[in-house]
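step 4 of 6: structure.
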Amino acid sequence: MNVVIVGCGRTGAFLAELLDRGGDTVSIVDVERSAFARLPADFKGTPVLGNGTDMDILRQAGVESANAFVSLTQGDNRNLMAAQIAKKIFGVAQVIAKVNDPIRAATYRGQGLYTFSRTTILATLLHAVLSGDKTIGPNLMKAAMKHDEEESAGLPTVTR
Amino acid sequence: MYFVVAGGGEVGYHLSKALLEAGHEVMIIERDRRRALWIEEQLGSVVINAPADEGRYQIQAGCPRADAVLAVTGDDEDNLIISQLSKLKCGANRVIARVNNPKNEIVFKAMGIDETLSSTRVLMGVIEQELPTGGFMPLMPLTRSDLEVIEAEIAAGSPAADREVEAVGLPAGAHIGAVVRKGTILHAHRDTKLEVGDRIIVFAPTAAEQEVRKALFG
């Protein structure tokens, strides 16, 4: 699968790492060169420096041959614009945008865009765990914590 | 008429001021509290201090009954979402969006926002008309299309000089509408030969402007 990710923050970099490790072809766009430092040293994908709402930059990132597109910058509007460019102009099959404002997320979901709000997801998950839900809560938490452990196991040990 | 102006920056403020002076009704939505207060001091109670990209404030500002919503912040992504939300959430009658990066005009169109204004393009148009040596003036866009009218002068050394109209090598969709030679208008037939000093009127797709320029100036 060819995936374009816009926004190399913690979430973007981590998703890129997961996909890359799983054998997918990933390119990741960010306006800040320093953001790419979040990618692991053995990352095989392509970092692309530039604005993710700029069609030329997206072309450079391979949006024309992408199967999936995920927009994860800090700006809701930027994510919505990038996602709509990917979907309506480049016809990417699967397009996902992070939209933290739940109302805006719902509005654009009604327009056929796959949007999610981090706030809603996290609160729903925590609520599931706290209310003793036996399915989504524990399973998702277990998967997420496994990633955390792998991450910290990869850090060099300090010897005194 | 009643206008909602989304974004009270330099453009939004001066635009609102001009609209008010022309006798129109205006409501500005400005996110920054200090800026909103300042505008209120200058123009009176015509400001809502709120983010313009949230539906409820658009409704509060009266977007549903406005004759036009003008999205004029300095960020294209904000202008796009403000425009789309005022159509989706408020059923706004008419939305005009400011586009800072001219490339985004195409993006906005693809996303249902047909009326855009690019200050960069307007400025370029003015500057090109003022430049004596340019010889290439995009005169105006044709309303509700992706076409524009260009005036160009055939200078000595132009690849189009001493060529017939059909041999000029304009991009697809571009046509020479007329040739102005020594103050008279000639029809541009396929075999009309262009001479140095001719001014030609070209109808062309806006996106092909650079190719037209290349065909005429090399």
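step 5 of 6: annotate
 - The helical segments of chain B are 10-21, 33-43, 55-60, 76-88, 104-110, 119-130, 209-217.
 - The first strand of chain B starts at residue 2 and ends at 6.
step 6 of 6: archive
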